[in-house]
Amino acid sequence: MFWKFDLHTSSHLEALLDKEDVTLIELMDEEDVLQECKAQNRRLLLFLCQDQCMQELVRMITTEPPAGVEEIKRFKYPNIACELLTCDVGVINDKMGNEEPLLETLYSFLEQPSPLNPLLASFFSKTIGNLITRKTEQVLSFLRRKEGFLSLVLKHIDTSAMMDVLLRLISCVEPPPLRLETLTWLNEEKLAQRLVELIHPERDEERQSNASQTLCDIIRLSRDQANQLQEMSQPDPLLTVLESQECVEQLLQNMFSGETTESCIINGIQVLLTLLEIRRPVVDGVMDAQGFERSYTVNSTILLAIQPHLIHFHQLLLEPPKRNPMLTTLGVLEEPLGNTRLHVARLVASLLYTSSASHAVVAQELCRLNTMDLLLDLFFKYTWNNFLHLQVELCVAAILRPCAHEMRLQPGMGAATETPSEPPVTTENSAHNLMVTHLFQHCHLVQRILEAWEENDKIQSEGGMRRGYMGHLTRIANTVVHNLEKGPVHTQISSLITGLPEDYRGRWETFVDQDLSEANRRNTIDLIGTGNPRPSSEDDMESPFPKELTLQQAFSDYQIQQMTANFVDQFGFNDEEFTDHDDSIGATFDRIAEININIDAGQDSVSANTAVFEACSKERIQPFDDDEEDIWEEKEMNFATQAKSLSRVDCVGCSLYTATGWVADFGEVNSKAPAAGVGFSAWDTPDTQPAATEAEEKGWAKFTDFQPFCCSETGPRCSSPVDSELSASDSTKPNQNRKLLRHYLFSYSNLGTNYIALD
């Protein structure tokens, strides 16, 4: 029964709390201790908030557990202690934030020698981060009194949990005045400069990587909060320092001082790429007032600091750090591209996309170094490296398609954004025109495209593989054609292509009209297929139902068509037809009258379609035989009368009742069973013809072939008490009533016909 089971909802925790000598470990062994704590169990919170219990919880997350304990249970109690301290219960937060001895115990974790236990470091970071969020003023006041706080955090920066502590101080402090005060304190402690110093070839890779990631996160968080908190009268001090020319120069000097290492170069370029970010992807759906994603202005001092070191980055493209040969699916690559050259290509693309006032200086230096020509050489050399191909494509697109909206975001540009198609002549535009000329005349972009395309066609015609850069090469060619037709520099591109040698100019025109157009046609996806629909796979051609699969495929293609703005108009309705029917009552009929139902096709096409339609109709529609009897035709039913008491007979799966004065007449009995797989109808009409007909071949039951039971001399054996009395008193009917009546019940299924004989 239900009440036999123990459904008492109170936990075992209450029984433990009733004990006088209960210990913290005993409570932590209970599996529902966290649930009860989050539910703010009063008795449990009173026990946990005792001084000795809180000290023990903090000690668990800051002290290394004994080494002799089993590894699975070693960090069990520290984990539970961290969850109890960070379960966001006000009583525990107040106890931790207001009791300085507890904060001292927690702070002592930073004073331990390196390296820290990563798991305990995560417990410490989570606990101190929760206190920074919930008890901001108390915790910040405590940390600011600790002179060596930042030094200890940076000392353990090789542990990733320490990065979270710094980011909590920057992003989780409210309100804005207190946040600005905290940022000023961190800036006075020279946090940005000390992080930059950690990106140095002499530092270990883990420390460099975490320092670089911390700088990138600080830059992004500071820019996002600066956009959100427009009421801040003062700029972010940390961001101001990081964007300063002195700080960027210090970073570049560290990168190229002494023997360059790949780790230092990559981590330094990551910071530079973050500083050069002009827009961020929409992660949370936030856009600026102009409808673009979050956009940022690149400080000119960043480009001025990078420009003298462009020669070092160019040299890295020529002589990257040595790498061992790499085994790939296409063979051994003796000289891999490497992560260093890939990041340099990303840096060049970001520099070309900036529209700062100092962009001209960078553009001129890149043209002088002939960096784009070197990148194009690497583009065709590393045939299968699509990471590199994408960056080179972005470089070409940035040169041929200057972003007018990014220029608009720059202060003081003035009329530079009024007419994007014809920008005024400025220092920046002249430098940009220099890049366009350099790309076509010195880098020979058109000649490279034509030669690479023809070489690929030759390789494919000989049975070789299509080159891996062909997709990006197609997009580069389309970018050239698009900006040749329209764009800010279409006049200059047109004159440069006109100035090509006659041979290349003719080949380019042929290439655009034929090869490129054909490639674009193949790459275009038709959402709604035209003509005869094709089966989804070759297997469908061999299936017994190819036409059904074809229709399903066509319907699926129709369903996945793109919803466009004029879909409603194309579908046949618009909003005006649902507003006032009286004023536009004839609109629907007018639109129907406009429908063109004429079939414009040749005679051959019509006859071919007619033949296909008739063939499908013959497969699907089986014509009726005029000589076959209509089984649904209503016919007159004959009933014979006979004075007999009510009797009940089981006949062919149904109950036949005969009453005094009438009985159903079914004709003669035909014991012939129908063939397997042939059906019958219990409501068929009688037929007096004894010969077999088409209906028998089709499987229809003929009740006219059965002998009526009421007309037989013996009659059926019946269980009716009335009939039993009459049968017993009738002396003219001796033992014939015991004669067995055998008949068949036909049970039909899709797999065949089963015959059941009842005795």
Main attributes of the structure:
38 helices, 8 strands, two-stranded antiparallel sheet, 759 residues, disordered C terminus, protein phosphatase binding, mainly alpha, Protein phosphatase 6 regulatory subunit 2, protein phosphatase regulator activity, SAPS
What does this structure look like?
The chain is mainly alpha-helical. The chain has a domain at about 450-525. It is built from 38 helices and 8 strands. Strands 1-2 form a two-stranded antiparallel sheet. The protein has a two-stranded antiparallel sheet with strand order 3-6. Strands 4-5 form a two-stranded antiparallel sheet. The longest helix is centred in the N-terminal third of the chain and has 24 residues, at about 205-230. The radius of gyration is 45 Å and the shape is extended. About 25% of the residues are buried. One of its GO terms (molecular function) is protein phosphatase binding.
